[in-house]
């Protein structure tokens, strides 16, 4: 909607208040400001509201709106009087309005900071979370306009509205006056209101996914009249999978008298079906998709899977076509998978949905798989099928113009059928939200990610999302911080997924290796060391080992309390005639199965080389009886999931696996209840097998790191309270406002050295003083003031922090040495006016480090740490954490770089004061977290000595803060 001439030119239509939202039942709606053009919509909406709801709104019978009412409710100045509407299909389903008031309750203007608020929701849409979403948005609008409190009068019988206010999480006061409940809400967001908002977001977005992958009925729009083609293929796959709901074929070209196709009711439009349709799979040319979407929207379809191509992957014209598709679908309350999608699969027995182009449907299992690429999706499905792995759900989202990996993380978080989430991503539309959701999901189940398009520097065609400037190494570090298992290839993703889905989490890095090949055992041992594990010397059972020997050795290793995981290696037996005898694979599988079933719950992986029958036996070994797995009682619980086990949760019933190929799995049963163990729910798992030691060990190493993260995440870090005593947050805010000025440049401005030092000092960060030395005499005077020994260094941008170019002279002991150094510096590098030399007193000897914090518009504030110098820069040896950083983050940050041993007494040197370094990191984190205007901080170098540290150089950049969409009201992205 656009403003009309009647509206104030000083307060133009605020289009940034428009938003698409997901409601409690998973449907979508649009929130927007009300304009003068909405008079007819308002009257029509009011006519559909019940007399009871009207009474609750106006405290009296109010059958119709007068012309004066309509004018009042459609004319706003968007400052003191604001009205928002929720629309579906362009029609109002709810409204909210606030009017600014003074202390006496009369209409007022700024600086009055209180407003009276009132809601009205159409009865047919009550209970969908409409009022809760409206409250979030009208509160954000009010805060933007300087309003800090809402006042509301509610009749005591209006329990629904009272509950909306009560459950919002805002600080509030309630009283009973003149027969009504008087509510006052403080609009400043609180931890509780943010938690409520995110919980509602999770439920709504998970429900919107569920509507798409667990429909009661499916219509394939574009089913071909002849065999073949996209639509006919999807219809065939639906039928072959045994979809439990109703299926319809739709094609406007069907003959008028055609009743069925492939045994499915055939119709020329959705409207002809005459029954509710939950999901429509759209497989028509792009230019006909709008017509299909209209047909679906007008007849109550809940969601769309758009397989059609010709959208953003085709350039600017296609990108606009894609935006219009999303706008059109959302206007009807529908969400979209696609366009250019490959489809979805849901293996739940209650659904059995294969609405995809997949030629092979995977077996039911415990892995959820999301991919943005159809080609990668095909490869992954094929690979999982060959290895006998099962999936709970599969989604190939194509251009993912609407539904994304974030939505499926919301769904998988509580999905009882999914134990591991695998995602192939080529772009991150909302990195902040992804990190937040991944951290929460990883606290209860593993999340494994492959990130494509890592080095292209651009978004893949078809992905119309904001581009992040963060290097891929930083993205990887931030994912690790969130508990995400980041791997480099889809093969590694499958390897890790199989282990995590079917094995308990290891309690540590100690690995036992056993097998009948000394060489293969040594390769496995080396691989463990390379991955940071702690392998025990391989146990060679010799080539004469029998399956019984394998069984006994595995049982012994599992029972060993000094072992956290076991890797079994196996090669074919060699007969008396010198030929390989590989027919005992099934016997070996049975032996390993027996040992694993009776041993303690520890992860087991098998590395095998061409043993005939073993792979088939690994995949075919099944059981009809569920055996209890154990959960270590000492393992910490996951945050926000007090009932979640520390070990992997696995299904209580067995699922048959398809025929397998080498690298498949052995059904594994664990039934022991050893010391310190408590019985858990009955479970049934498999032992993953790998054709190479490196692959098995890499998957195991990822499980070890993830298990360690889970244990640490159970007790979150914190920001030490002592920082509050030395931080002047209000003074820093005032100084930042003064430095930026009343009309700041959107590009920001760098601070001078003195300005940066003064701002940093308000957060307890002291920069060692420097004095300018424009000539030798000035240098001598500066040294006399600071005291010898001193350092003489250049500050020219091209020479700063480049000691390798000769721009620094250290330990200058006296005046003659200083004059000599000054002359050498200018003779070598140029005139003083070019070099901008300074004099600084020497700091205690230590390790030179670098501390930085930057703000990326997409990912947010990032804290970085590394050693100073060219080697670290060349090797990219820098660690990163998201801000705000906790004490644990700071400790991990300095220990996660490869050169960390230098800080802890490498080669007999004295360990430096890492506690002081951690405190400095926390102070920088607090600075950029408290003041988003601080878009860049660099402390270089920071010399860390055995006691204390010295900041020798600092630079700070300020800019108007970027928008924080992650802290605002719920809204769907518009790309």
Largest beta-sheet details: 8 strands, mixed
Q: What is the end-to-end distance?
A: 19 Å
Helical/strand content category = alpha/beta
What is the share of helical residues?
25-40%
Helices, by number, come to 28
* Shape annotation: flat
Report the average pLDDT across residues.
Answer: 86
**What is the C-alpha radius of gyration, as a whole number of Å?**
33 Å
With strands numbered from the N-terminus, the spatial order across the biggest sheet is 1-2-3-4-5-6-8-7
Poorly predicted runs? 1-10, 621-684
Question: What is the number of strand segments?
Answer: 44
State which percent range the strand residues make up.
15-25%
What does this structure look like?
- The protein is 33% helix and 24% strand.
- It is built from 28 helices and 44 strands.
- The strands form 8 sheets. Strands 1-2-3-4-5-6-8-7 form an 8-stranded mixed sheet, sandwiched between helices. A 7-stranded mixed sheet has the order 11-12-10-9-13-14-15, with helices on both faces.
- Helix 6 packs across helix 12 (405-414), helix 16 (518-530) runs parallel beside helix 20 and helix 27 crosses helix 28 (914-930).
- The radius of gyration is 33 Å and the shape is flat.
Task: Provide a brief overview of the structure.
This protein is α/β, with parallel strands linked by helices and 975 residues long. It has 28 helices and 44 strands. The strands form eight sheets. The chain has an eight-stranded mixed sheet, with helices on both faces.
């Amino acid at each position: 909607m656009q403003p009309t001439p009647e509206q104030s030119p000083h307060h133009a239509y605020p289009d940034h208040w428009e938003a698409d939202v997901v409601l409690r039942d998973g449907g979508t709606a649009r929130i927007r400001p009300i304009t003068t053009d909405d008079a007819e919509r308002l009257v029509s909406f009011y006519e559909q509201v019940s007399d009871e709801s009207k009474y609750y709104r106006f405290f009296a019978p109010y059958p119709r709106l007068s012309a004066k009412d309509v004018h009042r409710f459609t004319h706003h100045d968007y400052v003191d009087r604001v009205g928002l509407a929720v629309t579906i299909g362009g029609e109002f389903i709810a409204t909210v309005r606030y009017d600014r008031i003074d202390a006496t309750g009369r209409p007022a203007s700024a600086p009055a900071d209180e407003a009276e608020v009132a809601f009205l929701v159409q009865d047919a849409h009550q209970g969908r979370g409409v009022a809760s979403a409206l409250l979030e948005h009208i509160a954000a609008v009010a805060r933007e306009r300087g309003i800090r409190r809402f006042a509301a009068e509610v009749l005591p019988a209006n329990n629904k509205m009272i509950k909306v206010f009560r459950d919002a999480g805002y600080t509030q006061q309630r009283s009973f006056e003149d027969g009504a409940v008087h509510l006052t809400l403080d609009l400043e967001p609180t931890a509780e209101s943010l938690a409520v908002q995110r919980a509602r977001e999770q439920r709504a977005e998970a429900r919107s996914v569920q509507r798409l992958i667990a429909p009661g009925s499916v219509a394939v729009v574009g089913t071909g009249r002849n065999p073949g083609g996209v639509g006919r293929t999807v219809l065939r796959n639906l039928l072959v999978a045994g979809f439990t709901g109703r299926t319809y074929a739709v094609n406007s070209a069907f003959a008028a008298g055609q009743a069925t196709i492939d045994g499915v009711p055939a119709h020329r439009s959705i409207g002809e079906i005459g029954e509710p349709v939950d999901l429509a799979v759209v497989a028509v040319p792009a230019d006909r998709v709008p017509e299909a979407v209209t047909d679906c929207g007008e007849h109550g379809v809940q969601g769309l899977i758009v397989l059609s191509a010709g959208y953003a992957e085709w350039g600017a014209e296609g990108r606009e076509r894609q935006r219009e598709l999303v706008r059109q679908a959302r206007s009807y309350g529908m969400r979209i998978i696609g366009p250019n999608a490959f489809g979805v699969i849901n293996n739940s027995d209650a659904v059995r949905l294969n609405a995809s182009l997949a030629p092979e449907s995977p077996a039911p299992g415990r892995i959820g798989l999301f991919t943005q690429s159809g080609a990668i999706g095909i490869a992954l499905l094929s690979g999982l099928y060959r290895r006998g792995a099962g999936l709970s759900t599969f989604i190939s989202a194509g251009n993912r113009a609407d539904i994304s990996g974030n939505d499926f993380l919301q769904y998988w978080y509580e999905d009882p059928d999914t134990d591991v989430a695998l995602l192939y991503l080529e772009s991150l539309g909302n990195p902040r939200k992804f990190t937040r959701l991944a951290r929460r999901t990883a606290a209860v189940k593993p999340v494994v990610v492959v990130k494509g398009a890592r080095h292209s520097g651009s978004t893949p065609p078809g992905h119309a999302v904001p581009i992040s400037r963060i290097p891929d190494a930083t993205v990887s570090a931030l994912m690790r911080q969130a508990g995400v298992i980041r791997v480099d290839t889809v093969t590694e993703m499958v390897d890790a997924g199989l282990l995590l889905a079917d094995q308990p989490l290891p309690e540590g890095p100690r690995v036992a290796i056993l097998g009948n090949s000394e060489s293969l055992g040594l390769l496995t041992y080396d691989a463990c060391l390379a991955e940071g594990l702690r392998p025990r010397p391989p146990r060679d059972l010799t080539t004469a080992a029998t399956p019984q020997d394998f069984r006994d050795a595995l049982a012994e290793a599992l029972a060993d309390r000094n072992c956290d995981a076991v890797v079994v290696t196996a090669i074919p037996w060699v007969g008396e005639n010198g030929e390989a005898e590989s027919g005992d694979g099934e016997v070996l599988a049975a032996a390993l199965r027996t040992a694993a079933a009776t041993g303690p719950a520890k992860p087991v992986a098998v590395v095998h080389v061409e043993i005939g029958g073993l792979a088939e036996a690994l995949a075919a070994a099944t059981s009809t009886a569920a055996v209890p797995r154990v959960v270590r009682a000492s393992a910490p619980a996951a945050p926000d999931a007090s009932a979640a086990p520390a070990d992997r949760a696995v299904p209580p019933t067995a699922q048959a696996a398809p025929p397998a190929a080498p690298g498949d799995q052995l059904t594994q049963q664990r039934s022991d209840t050893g010391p310190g163990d408590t019985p858990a729910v009955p479970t049934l798992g498999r032992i993953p097998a790998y054709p190479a030691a490196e692959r098995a060990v890499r998957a195991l190493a990822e499980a070890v790191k993830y298990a360690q993260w889970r244990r640490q995440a159970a007790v979150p870090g914190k920001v030490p309270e002592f920082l509050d005593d030395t931080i002047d947050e209000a003074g820093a805010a005032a100084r930042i406002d003064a430095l930026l000025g009343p009309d700041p440049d959107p590009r920001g401005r760098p601070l001078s050295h003195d300005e940066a030092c003064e701002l940093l000092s308000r957060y307890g960060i002291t920069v060692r003083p420097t004095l300018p030395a424009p000539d030798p005499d000035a240098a001598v005077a500066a040294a006399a003031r600071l005291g010898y020994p001193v350092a003489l260094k250049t500050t020219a941008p091209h020479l700063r922090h480049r000691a390798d170019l000769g721009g620094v002279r250290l330990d200058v002991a006296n005046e003659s040495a200083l004059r000599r150094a000054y002359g050498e510096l200018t003779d070598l590098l140029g005139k003083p006016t070019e070099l901008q030399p300074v004099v600084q007193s020497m700091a205690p000897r230590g390790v030179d480090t670098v501390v930085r914090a930057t703000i990326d518009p997409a990912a947010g504030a990032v804290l970085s740490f590394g050693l100073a110098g060219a080697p670290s820069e060349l090797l990219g040896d820098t660690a990163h954490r998201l801000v705000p950083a906790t004490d644990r983050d700071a400790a991990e940050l300095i220990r996660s770089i490869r050169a960390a041993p230098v800080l802890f007494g490498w080669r007999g040197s004295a360990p430096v004061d890492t506690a002081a370094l951690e405190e400095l990191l926390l102070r920088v984190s607090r600075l950029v977290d408290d003041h988003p205007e601080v878009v860049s901080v660099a402390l270089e170098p920071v010399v860390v000595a055995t006691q204390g540290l010295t900041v020798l150089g600092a630079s700070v950049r300020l800019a108007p803060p970027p928008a924080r969409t992650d802290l605002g009201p719920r809204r769907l992205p518009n790309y």
